[in-house]
Structures are given as structure tokens and as C-alpha cells.
Amino acid sequence: MKEKMNPFNKNRLLLLWGRMVSDTGSRVQLIVIPLYILDTGDSAATAGLFTFLSIAPALLIYPMAGVLGDRWNRKTFIIINFSR
After folding, report:
1. Residue 38 has what pLDDT?
2. How much is the pLDDT for 62?
3. Which of 9, 34, 56, 66 could staple 47 via S-S, CB 3.0–4.6 A?
4. Distance between CA 47 and CA 36 in Å, rounded?
5. Of 27, 53, 60, whose CA–CA distance to 45 is shortest?
6. Residue 79: which pLDDT band, with cuts at 50, 70 and 90?
7. Which residues contact 50 (CB under 8 A, 6 or more apart)?
């Protein structure tokens, strides 16, 4: 007989809480660092360049990652990544 899965598993809640805190910190950092650059006296162009350069890798990698994710076997990909 199958057991019911508890949606309030302690490990799952800890994982979700940790992700929420980490994602919040990352987003705050994306806002604060350009403001710090402006505050230290550099130009707005420097802050804009920094922001663009921090987002550019994602703009280049995400489209290719989506295509590769659709073409590869997901189960094999997950096993390879988590077996390290």
C-alpha cells in the first residue's frame, strides 16, 4: 500500500525556506550594488555597465540551457548532476 506524501515534511520546508532567503538576498544585492556605485561617486554609466555585465551571462546561457534541457533525457541529466 502506498503511503501518503506529507506536504509539510521538515526537510522540504527547510529547503523552501533556505531558497526563499537566498533568492531574497540575491535580489537585494542586484539592487544595492548599483546604488552603492552611484553613492561612491562614480557615474550612472558605470552603474549601468555593472548591471548589464552582471545580467549578461544569464542572457547568454539561459536560451541554450532551455534548448539543451528539452533535447536531453531529463532523468539521466539529473542523475549525472546529483551523483557528484
Report:
1. 92
2. 87
3. 34
4. 9
5. 53
6. confident
7. 33, 34, 37
